[in-house]
Amino acid sequence: MKPLENAAYLKGLAEGLEIDGKGKEGKLILAIIDALESFARSIEDSERELDAVSDELSFLSQGVKAMGEYIFDDDNDDDDDDDEFELDEDSVEYSTECPTCKTVIELDLDELEDGKIVCPSCGEELEFELDCDDGCDCH
Question: Three-state SS string across the chain, please?
Fold first, then answer.
């Protein structure tokens, strides 16, 4: 069970036992349950944020790895300045977070170029613009 589900279970259990906030013990038990619910929400928010950071780190790691392979590749001749560094677009993953339900959505380059997607979790239509400052031909 997830932390928020556990807190909801305890809240339901307290209601089923008819624990009210009138007595000392009842006030204490309800306050503890409210605190646990607050902690559970914080944990779930942190997990969502951690997932988003992990996705970004994975994306950056792929870029650094590709650059490292290019820089330290023994087949590269210092005389050959015509080679350009390019990321393999099929191996790069893009992601965004739905502003409505906070679900992290993985995107491919075609979806980015379309400029809109529908959140698979809540059905919200998300629109965005792919902005390339480096003069690439990505539109």
Answer: CCHHHHHHHHHHHHHHCCCCCCCHHHHHHHHHHHHHHHHHHHHHHHHHHHHHHHHHHHHHHHHHHHHHHHHHCCCCCCCCCCCCCCCCCCCCCEEEECCCCCCEEEECHHHHHHCEEECCCCCCEEECCCCCCCCCCCC
Which pair of structure tokens corresponds to residue 125? Answer: 């239509």
Give me 76's structure tokens: 């590269």
Tens of pLDDT along 2-39?
Answer: 888 999 999 999 999 998 888 899 999 999 999 999 99
Strand partners, 94: 107
**Whole-prediction pTM value?**
0.43
